[in-house]
Amino acid sequence: MFTHITVGANDVEASRKFYDAALGALGMESASGPDPKGRYWWRTARGAFAVGKPIDGEPACHANGGTIGFHAKTPEMVQAFHDAGVAAGGTAIEDPPGERNGAFGTLNLAYLRDPSGNKVCALYRAG
Fold first, then answer.
1. Within a domain: residue 35?
2. 95 inside domain
């Protein structure tokens, strides 16, 4: 459904460091960039994710109620995403990483805020 997602950052280098660590724990390569607009990109065969200063020149802010979920191949990768993200300047939020049972079945999740306050998670779904 999505081709790419871009989030704003006031400190692009802090955000690049955070995402290189957290997404690296999910098996993604380090970001490419910066591009001519100062954005860093993480690319996969299924889509791309970018971080950079807002093009309109206004301060970056996070979406209240928004979450960006990244696929994890194993439950261990969910924990690694959490640990790497916290070590690289992210903030742990919500319940600790682990299994959740609900309307969507059993999921393994970890939620973080990046250095700019964007809410991200790693998700592993068995099956």
1. yes
2. yes
Kind and range of the H or E element at 106?
strand 105-113
> Torsion angle, CA of 58/61/64/66, rounded to 10 degrees?
100
Q: Let me know if residue 78 belongs to a domain.
A: yes
Q: In this predicted model, what pLDDT tens digit does every residue of 93-110 receive, in sequence order?
A: 999 999 998 888 899 999
CATH code, domain carrying 42: 3.10.180.10
Instruction: Indicate the pTM of the whole model.
Output: 0.91
How far apart (Å, rounded) are the C-alpha atoms in residues 27 and 15?
Answer: 18
Give me the sign of the Cα torsion angle 63, 64, 66, 67: positive
How crowded is residue 106: how many other Cβ atoms within 10 Å of its Cβ?
12
Domain count, the chain: 1
Q: Strand, coil or helix: what is 83? A: helix
Express each pLDDT in 22-50 by its tens digit. 999 999 999 999 999 999 999 999 899 99
Number of H helices, E strands in the chain: 2, 8
Tokens 């692009």, residue?
Answer: 12
